[in-house]
Specification:
The complex is a heterodimer of chains A (192) and B (130). With 192 residues, chain A is α+β, with helices and mostly antiparallel strands. Helices cover 16% and strands 37% of the residues of chain A. In chain A, strand 3 and strand 4 form a beta hairpin. The N terminus of chain A is likely disordered. In chain B, the strands form two sheets. Chain B has an eight-stranded antiparallel beta sheet with strand order 1-2-3-6-5-4-7-10, with no helix packed on it. Chain B has a two-stranded antiparallel sheet with strand order 8-9. The chains are: A alpha+beta (192), B mainly beta (130).
């Protein structure tokens, strides 16, 4: 299993003038990606020079780790930014429900825009299956996925054993950004 | 140019969510997305983000238009209204419809973790070509 999580440093990068706009967000993604194998905990985050003031992950308390150790896209995956519930329907659809944590809501503000800037299946980039949603930060952000479209390729149905990689970007009304990404294995139909 | 086209709906979907009324409120057609706004009354139970409880309701939805084009779900979001009385949400689909598509038939199939599938319904939604 590999799960990486962090709060974004895009605002910091933009403030410093090093990078502007979406490039800052992408850069912060690259800079803060941290492979992890177990429970979410603040010490597991890699500290970046000068990043502490803007990183929720560095200051947040550890949360009880309930991320499945088996790496399957089932059950609840917890971290300091969000808790994501997965389920595979009997028809083969893959569902996720994404909730920001109270800690994240406090930092991000009352309204957020949740989007999915990138996604991949079995190492191939796909059209991200989530359109940007600007909503109250306590909302359930969710998706129901049957097929995916490989960039430059064709549609495929999700199948058991596929390795999916989803990246969520959350832009808060306070100007703070956050990321969440999960890599997991699509599991058997009807398991949630 | 159909981007930004919208229409009030006021379509009640009876019996799909037990003890609650589901109303499709409006449809908005964007450059590359169709957005359906809905309201559930009374509101779904409030949920603390950190409790670890599964979502009260999970949506499954997709669509087909009167020309036979398929539309895949493209994410949604729902939550409690400001006054706490209703749940407000939206379901998006892609791609945007062709100009001559008149109707979109959306298949709705909610799921509850404690009860399983709640059945399904098909809702006819007007499109700009109608």
């Amino acid at each position: 299993m590999r799960e990486s999580r962090y709060l974004a440093l895009g605002r910091l990068l933009r403030r410093t003038g090093l990078i502007a706009g979406p490039l800052a967000l992408i850069a912060s993604l690259a800079l803060t990606a941290i492979p992890a194998t177990a429970a979410v905990s603040a010490p597991a985050q890699r500290q970046l020079p000068g990043a502490g003031a803007h990183s929720l992950a560095l200051r947040a308390p550890a949360l009880p780790g309930r991320t499945p150790a088996n790496g399957r896209c089932t059950g609840e995956w917890r971290n300091v930014v969000s808790n994501v519930f997965w389920r595979r329907g009997t028809t083969g659809r893959l569902y996720w429900d994404f909730y920001l944590t109270n800690v994240a809501i406090e930092r991000l503000g009352g309204v957020v825009t949740v989007s999915m800037p990138s996604a991949a299946v079995n190492g191939h980039a796909i059209n991200p299956p989530y359109s940007p949603h600007t909503r109250v930060s306590t909302y359930d952000f969710h998706a129901s996925l049957l097929n995916y479209h490989v960039l430059g390729g064709v549609n495929h149905a999700f199948k058991t054993g596929d390795r999916v990689h989803f990246v969520w970007l959350i832009i808060g009304s306070t100007g703070t950004d956050a990321y969440r990404y999960i890599t997991c294995t699509v599991w058997k139909k009807g398991v949630g | 140019m159909q981007a930004g086209w919208s229409r009030e709906l006021g379509i009640d979907v009876e019996g799909l969510i037990p003890d609650r009324q589901l109303r499709m409120v409006s449809v908005v057609v964007g450059d590359d997305v169709i957005t359906l706004h809905y309201r559930i009354s009374p509101a779904l139970p409030a949920r603390d983000p950190d409790t670890g409880r599964p979502p009260w309701l999970t949506w499954d939805w997709h669509g087909v238009d009167d020309l036979g084009n398929d539309y895949e779900s493209w994410g949604g979001a729902y939550g409690t209204s400001e006054d706490g009385l209703t749940t407000l949400g939206d379901l998006t689909l892609q791609p945007a419809p062709p100009p001559d598509a008149r109707h979109l038939y959306v298949h709705l199939a909610p799921f509850r973790h404690d009860e399983g599938d709640l059945g399904s319904a098909q809702v006819g939604i007007p499109l700009p070509g109608g």
